[in-house]
Design goal:
By secondary structure, the chain is α+β, with helices and mostly antiparallel strands. It is built from 4 helices and 7 strands.
């Protein structure tokens, strides 16, 4: 059974400084070890925007499609993957006096993932446990890289 995943990091910045970086999902290839390209269809990213993501792991390459299902500036952005029904998100929680933020990346699979995705994970990506460990490691790298970009922009 697939698990919900969550990783967080603290960033010394205001909510909007973090939001301005983290909500630019076209930068995901810079942050995520698996994502190679993100194409936002139909203009600037907003609620309802559709995206195509190109992912790579070793020699394996695959595309996914997603729709932005939450877009709350300074607070939350979430996108649901069409292929497996997982919802990925970045949530911002202010700490102290809004000069530090906890940025949380989540993968929510509460609704379950598709049988086709489960088969692909088991057959091509080393099985669920291995793949989820790799995703969690990648989420930590993603958040660290976002923090670096926020600090450079501040």
């Amino acid at each position: 059974m697939s698990a919900n995943l969550e990783v967080s990091i603290e960033i010394s910045a205001t909510p909007m400084q973090v939001w301005n970086v983290a909500s630019d999902l076209s930068r995901m290839p810079r942050w995520s070890p698996q994502t190679r390209r993100v194409i936002v269809r139909g203009g600037p990213l907003r609620l309802g925007s559709r995206m195509i993501n190109l992912n790579r792991r070793d020699v394996r390459v695959w595309a996914t499609r997603s729709t932005v299902v939450a877009f709350e500036p300074g607070k939350r952005i979430a996108w649901e993957m069409k292929e497996n029904h997982a919802t990925w998100s970045f949530d911002l929680e202010p700490l102290d006096d809004n000069t530090r933020i906890r940025l949380i990346e989540r993968r929510d699979v509460s609704a379950g993932i598709s049988k086709a995705s489960r088969l692909l994970i088991d057959t091509f990506l080393g099985g669920e446990d291995s793949f989820e460990r790799e995703l969690t490691t990648g989420m930590r790298q993603t958040l660290q890289r976002i923090r670096n970009d926020v600090e450079l922009a501040s």
